[in-house]
Amino acid sequence: MDKENQIFGIRAIIEAIQAGKELDKVFLQKDAQGDLMRELLKTMKQHKVNFTYVPVEKLNRLTAKNHQGAVATVAPVAFHDLEALVIQAFESGQTPLFLILDQISDARNFGAIIRTAECTGVTGIIIGKQGAAPVNGDTVKTSAGAVFNVPICKVEHIKDAIFYLQGSGVKIVAATEKTDANIYSISLNEPVAIVMGSEDRGVNPSVLKIVDEKAKLPMYGSIASLNVSVACGAFLYEVVRQRVS
Length: 245
Fold this sequence. Notes:
Layout: E1 6-8, H1 10-18, E2 23-29, H2 35-46, E3 51-54, H3 56-62, E4 70-74, H4 82-91, E5 97-102, H5 107-119, E6 124-128, H6 137-142, E7 152-155, H7 158-167, E8 171-175, E9 192-197, H8 205-208, E10 213-215, H9 228-244
Parallel strand pairs: 2-3, 5-6, 5-9, 6-7, 8-9, 8-10
Antiparallel strand pairs: 1-4, 2-4
Helix pairs in contact: 1-2, 5-9
């Protein structure tokens, strides 16, 4: 965790939330008690701030300061509102291209994906509040600064975001091995959102049930899968190929 983007102490975190700071993650000591901790929990729930319970040993590794059972990271970027971004995308006259990341948790993979997304003209990246990689120094560095150029939307539920996109006329295509169709057989010239799944489990089965199409990359080697950031790049550049040809 980057020290310059770190807030520690219960009161300091409460004040940061009330001041409108964009907190990416809050780590709480799982057995912490007291009135001040209850006030923090209430404040986080009111402002829909993502938090995780962790052992005190993790907090001690994050900071040597007196953290009082609470450490937070401040996001280096401001998150965008999904509905406003979708409206803006359609009003721009361009064909929107969204990227939905379903619980991709590695900050470096996230950064690499953002870098490719910026290069391929992605309209916006959608992540969930729970289980997503933090937007931290590793993300910024791996993205080569692209994180400041691509709008990122943090939503309560990925499925709700998908329903909203579908209702707005965006086709949802999931990257998954659980299909016979490959990405080169699917039309990507219309407004589209590509769903990439987590590094270990892929796209959530409940998400796969509601997408419009599923697609995979043809694999000819003995290894059955690609790194998610590499696979994402292949999918995004197929969108580019279809739209420039």
